[in-house]
Amino acid sequence: MALTSARIVTPATARMGEIIEIKTLARHPMETGYRRDDRGRQIARDIIGTFRVTYNAVEIFQADLSQGIAANPFIAFTTVAMETGDIIATWTDLAGREISAKARITIT
Amino acid sequence: MTISHGEPTMLAATLSRRGVISGGVAITLVPFASWPGAAQSEAGQLTDAISRATGGRTPLAAGVKLDLPELAENGFSVPLNVTIDSPMTERDHVRFITIVSEKNPAPQIARFTLGPRAGRAAVRTHVRLADTQRIAAVAETSTGRFLIGVADVVVTISACTNGG
Amino acid sequence: MKPPRRLISVIACSVLAVSSALAETPQPKRSGTSFLGPALQAQQRDDDANPAMLWVDQGKALWTKAVGITGRSCAACHGAPDSMKGVATRYPRIDGPTGRLLNLELRINVCRARHQNAEPLAYESAELLALTAFVAKQSRGMPIGVAVDGAARPHYEAGKTFFSTRQGQLNLACSQCHDDNWGRMLRGDAISQGHPTGYPAYRIEWQTVGSLHRRLRACSLGVRAEVLPFGSPEYLDLELYLMARAGGLLLETPAIRK
B120-162, pLDDT tens digit by residue? Predict the structure, then answer.
């Protein structure tokens, strides 16, 4: 399943040194590989395997996912607001397809 | 007519009986009580998965707060919050948080990689739980310590689950 | 000591037969959200944790996308999305030119045919769910209020009859669960009042967003009745009755449901 949409949300502004939460969602069925279709054929496993997040090109968070993560994965984590810039999340499925989403944060 | 958890209501009794007669699976329920006599292999799965996460070392049962609902409304999506007690400094921070399962077909649910820039060792996600079971979160710190927290979750199936 | 199962069923059937004759619209009205556990309620309150927002985002992109022979987008006629504020609270409604009863999904497709010269989007396709969810979300928090007079009246009456008619192998009417027994436990779940306040909704069982008609099809399947096609006249009439019955409740699209 192609990765069709994803979102990343951070506060638009933060004080230097403030700990902020980053919330992400990606649209993906996270097909387990255990299910069968109407004709009894096994549906192949199709999941997002890795999730990476950079803040001004420096990696700040990474996750290895399995089919034990719910469909349309929600992942939230924290980072220290350091500088004005872009926080970019990238989801990669087992076939190597990718989607990214970007949030801009401004230090006040 | 008094109705409470676990007691079949008249309506439910009617539905379930007819569901059975028509060969249907319209109304199903995982018992509220945990499974008696869980197979040894399942407990073994959790122990093995923890052992893989720690490289064989025994984790300390401290500093890990693993929050899952005691009663999950649907195993397809169960909120999981994990927080590790850590200063998250350059010298002493949580490097990895591994979430492992006792009864899912895939023992490792997820592995998160963090660093001092996280500020806090806290991750939230939604997991799939195949059954009523114990979940564990194993943290590895930059100082080489392994910490563990566990949570027991009862998984139910909605009354109207029918594949429609 | 437990009475024999057969006896329980016979009693249950007669209890239901009596109570369905006394069926009343539930009071006070409660949306499906209030029957969810705290975790799912919290997830619905937070757009950034509600996966249905991924479909709303897609709908937002489709709103400004030029389509059809005319090369016109939704926005080319309607402008900013807030022009859709309140619209979803008034559907299903009668389409002036044709006199047909349309719900929001069918209204979007009529728009495509009439104004964009574009092919209709398949019912339950990701695109139609996305556009419908996006349009409906503009009315989030506004009270539902459909018209049931004039040409809509026969549709309302037909929907009301459908709602209270026993059907399927389980021989159950919608009203027997959602009027007579709401709030009681059906196994592990509290039975809701059956108000369609949040559709298209993200249903955990589906692990995706689906339309109200998908939910109605699951209800039909649940009582072992004929599962009718998406957009069928029977479900449209029922949708009108349900929205009238939910009158005054606030629209919650995109909701989360179990």
Answer: 999 999 999 999 999 999 999 999 999 999 999 999 876 677 7
- All residues of chain A having their beta carbon less than 8 Å from the beta carbon of residue B109 are 66, 68-69
The answer to whether B82 and B137 have CB atoms below 8 angstroms apart is yes
C147 class by beta-carbon count within 10 Å (0-12 exposed, 13-18 middle, 19+ buried): middle
Contact B106/A at CB under 8 A: yes
The C-alpha of A34 sits at a distance from chain C's nearest C-alpha, in angstroms, of 15
CB of B119 within 8 Å of any CB in chain A?
yes
- CA–CA dist B77, B127 (Å, integer): 5
Please check whether residue C149 is in contact with residue C78, taking contact to mean a CB–CB distance below 8 angstroms: no
Helix (H/G/I), strand (E/B), else coil: C71: coil
Tokens of B19: 């569901």
Inter-chain CB proximity B12 and C13 less than 8 Å: no
Residue ranges of B 67-96 with Cβ closer than 8 A to chain A: 76-78
Question: Contact C77/C64 with Cβ under 8 angstroms?
Answer: no
ipTM: 0.96
Q: Residue A60 has what pLDDT?
A: 98
Task: Give, for C127, the enclosing helix (H) or strand (E).
Answer: helix C126-137
Chain C partners within 8 Å of B68 (Cβ)? none
CA distance B77 to chain C (A): 7
Mutate to test the interface with B, among A47, A55, A77, A94 (most CBs of B within 10 A): A77
pLDDT tens-digit series, residues A5-60: 999 999 999 999 999 999 999 999 999 999 998 899 999 999 999 999 999 999 99
C254: preceding bond cis by omega (within 30 degrees): yes
Q: Which amino acid is at C196?
A: P
Global confidence as pTM: 0.87
CA distances from C106 to C47, C121, C123, C209 (A): 26, 9, 8, 17
Q: Do C222 and B5 touch (CB under 8 A)?
A: no
Half-sphere exposure of B29 (CA within 13 A, CB side): 20
- Residues 6 or more apart whose CB falls under 8 angstroms from that of A37 comprise A43
Q: Closest to B158 (Cβ–Cβ): which among C12, C177, C258?
A: C258
Nearest one of B98, B9, C96, C224 to A68, comparing CA atoms: B98
